């Protein structure tokens, strides 16, 4: 197991280097000129050129990349072109609220999605299943910002139970989490339902019934655990991407998180910040994939790493 | 159950009467099992033999009431004097795994991959004997020893994928026999196993059944298995029993052309070597069942009467009956 994790971390580093190269190349392929953006539309070519030299943008791209990666090794993600503060400090100030929001959204998705998945699998093809599946389809189709505004209007403005957006503890977290949960839960529900239906046809489920196990026991003891693998995979990737920011939710609920940071950085052509957020997203996705692979081993004994 | 049960019902562990099973295909019901009758006496082993699709597995599943909806099952399945078809689901659960144990064809997939062997055997004891987890574990180790698994103390904590097919089938037998059932239903228990393992598994089943006085309903397509294991045999064809009797009588004096065909299609080790004779044609599909004798389209002796009428089971000799007009009038 230990050797496996070390090997996987080694692989993860290679993946991250690959991602950094691609992200770097893509950003420099964009026709916009950061020096011009920083200098403003009225600056003289000399000024723009000076900025370019200061930022090292005149160097060949591979040299720029190596310089960037060299700094990265020292924990330096560069300085924002626009705010002139370190990217690292910007990211770390957003990380707390983002982690809070990501966890809230994720848990809400699971709380809504998993029980509904089990329920619809147990009652597949009955009216209950059809109704819930139809509602889930509506849930998937709802734009989060629209649902978010609706909930804000209802429970923040009309009936004033929740704050009208902003950051600051669990009280502020509830509406955005519910909004995301409603739209995201349907994926979990459908995934779990289809896997459970598949597992229910397995021979060992028949064995469990032949032992005299109740339907409840069959579902929770024998079907569910076998049906969890794809859900765990999805949940891992999901939380990984959520931690990199939930732009639409953050925008709707005025939540100062990573999503907003990335969104604004893209608008500003603030390349160091964009790079930082992209790399962070990659780290989270890779990290949670690794965690998912380790969790597999606990859920399914056939998966063991040596 | 207001009906006064006949005395034979009480003597037999299981008495299946006029069993009909219908499956829904494209909004229409088709009969897969058509008026099947058989009984099993205490300690007796009955072989239910036939080709794939003849309704033998479905019959065994219907005894456990494990067929999925939409399926119609009618008739009577009288186990120890109770009609299983009339029990509630809760009552039926007390029967499954407790009074009737079941072994399936596929040992590789019949055990839950995520639970330890001990827990899978112990579950039956937990459910029906109300044992504590630690008692059930001890009992599971005992069961593993009884089914001839070496290193039982270690195997109890292993997972199914760590065992071979033969070992897994032994575990399945341990699960089925854990509560000392009066009836063991074995649905093709050796089909998926190597020939050398097959004999061991059959021997084990026979031995355990003998120790506990358990009756066995053995579902198989393999007449060799029947010859080795069973006391009596019922041959099924296209949802009907076409011949039944003691193993000795059926093997010595097969009457129904289908049974004869089956016997001719197994290779013999002794005597003159001949070409194997397959039975020509195929089993009729559920949707196109012949009106008369269902074997008539494939039967070398078919007469006009066979196409128009369905023969009943005619008594050939004491305890040996055949569903064929050739035996009409006790020929």
UniProtKB/TrEMBL annotation, chain A:
Matching entries from InterPro entries are given as: BPD_transp_1_N, MetI-like, MetI-like_sf
Q: Which GO cellular component does the record give, naming just one?
A: plasma membrane
Q: Could you tell me which Gene3D superfamilies the record lists for this protein? A: MetI-like
Where in or outside the cell is it found?
Cell membrane
What are the UniProt keywords, alphabetically?
Answer: Cell membrane, Membrane, Transmembrane, Transmembrane helix, Transport
Would you say which domain of life the source belongs to? Bacteria
Which one of the record's GO molecular function terms can you name? dipeptide transmembrane transporter activity
**Which family is it part of?**
Belongs to the binding-protein-dependent transport system permease family.
Could you identify this protein by its name?
ABC transporter permease
């Amino acid at each position: 197991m230990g050797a496996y994790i070390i090997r996987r971390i080694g692989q993860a580093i290679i993946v991250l280097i690959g991602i950094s190269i691609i992200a770097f190349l893509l950003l420099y392929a964009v026709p916009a000129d950061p020096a011009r953006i920083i200098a403003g539309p009225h600056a003289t070519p000399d000024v723009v050129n000076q900025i370019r030299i200061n930022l090292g943008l005149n160097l060949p791209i591979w040299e720029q990349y190596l310089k960037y990666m060299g700094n990265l090794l020292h924990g330096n993600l560069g300085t924002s072109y626009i705010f002139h503060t370190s990217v690292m400090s910007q990211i770390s100030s957003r990380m707390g609220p983002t982690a809070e929001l990501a966890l809230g959204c994720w848990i809400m998705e699971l709380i809504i999605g998993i029980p509904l998945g089990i329920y619809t699998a147990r009652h597949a093809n009955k009216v209950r299943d059809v109704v819930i599946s139809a509602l889930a389809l509506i849930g998937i189709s709802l734009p989060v910002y629209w649902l978010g505004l609706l909930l804000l209007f209802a429970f923040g403005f009309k009936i004033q139970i929740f704050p009208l957006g902003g950051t600051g503890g669990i009280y502020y977290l509830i509406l955005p989490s519910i909004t995301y949960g409603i739209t995201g839960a349907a994926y979990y529900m459908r995934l779990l339902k289809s896997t459970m239906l598949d597992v229910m046809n397995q021979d060992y489920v028949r064995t469990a019934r032949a032992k005299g196990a109740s339907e409840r026991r069959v579902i929770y003891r024998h079907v569910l655990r076998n049906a969890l693998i794809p859900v765990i995979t999805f949940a891992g990737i999901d939380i990984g991407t959520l931690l990199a920011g939930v732009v639409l939710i953050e925008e709707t609920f005025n939540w100062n998180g990573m999503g907003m940071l990335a969104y604004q950085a893209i608008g500003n052509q603030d390349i160091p910040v964009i790079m930082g957020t992209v790399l962070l997203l990659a780290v989270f996705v890779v990290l949670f994939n690794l965690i998912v692979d380790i969790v597999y081993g606990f859920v399914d004994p056939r998966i063991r790493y040596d | 159950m207001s009906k006064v049960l006949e005395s034979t019902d009480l003597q037999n562990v299981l008495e299946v009467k006029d069993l009909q099973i219908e499956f829904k295909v494209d909004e229409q019901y088709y009969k897969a099992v058509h008026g099947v009758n058989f009984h099993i006496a205490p300690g007796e082993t009955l072989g239910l033999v036939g080709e794939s699709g003849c309704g033998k597995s479905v019959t065994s599943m219907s005894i456990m009431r494990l067929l999925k909806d939409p399926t119609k099952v009618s008739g009577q399945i009288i186990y120890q004097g109770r009609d299983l078809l009339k029990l509630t689901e809760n009552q039926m659960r007390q029967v499954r795994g407790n009074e009737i144990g079941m072994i399936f064809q596929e040992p590789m997939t019949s055990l839950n991959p995520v639970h330890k062997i001990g827990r899978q055997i112990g579950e039956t004891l937990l459910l029906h004997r109300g044992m504590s987890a630690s008692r059930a574990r001890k009992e599971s180790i005992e069961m593993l020893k009884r089914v001839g698994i070496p290193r039982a103390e270690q195997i109890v904590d292993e997972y199914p994928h760590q065992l071979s097919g033969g070992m897994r089938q032994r575990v399945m037998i341990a699960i089925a026999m854990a509560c000392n059932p009066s009836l063991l239903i074995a649905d093709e228990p050796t089909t998926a196993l190597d020939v050398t393992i097959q004999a061991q598994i059959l021997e084990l089943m026979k031995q355990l059944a003998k120790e506990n006085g358990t009756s066995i309903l053995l579902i198989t397509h393999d007449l060799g298995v029947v010859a080795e294991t069973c006391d009596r045999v019922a041959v099924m064809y296209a949802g009907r029993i076409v011949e039944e009797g003691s193993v000795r009588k059926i093997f010595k004096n097969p009457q129904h052309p289908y049974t004869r065909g089956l016997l001719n299609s197994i290779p013999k080790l002794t005597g003159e070597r001949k070409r194997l004779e397959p039975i020509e044609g195929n089993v009729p599909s559920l949707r196109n069942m012949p009106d008369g004798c269902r074997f008539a389209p494939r039967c070398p002796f078919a007469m006009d009467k066979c196409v128009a009428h369905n023969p009943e089971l005619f008594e050939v000799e004491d305890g040996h009956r055949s569903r064929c007009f050739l035996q009409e009038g006790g020929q």
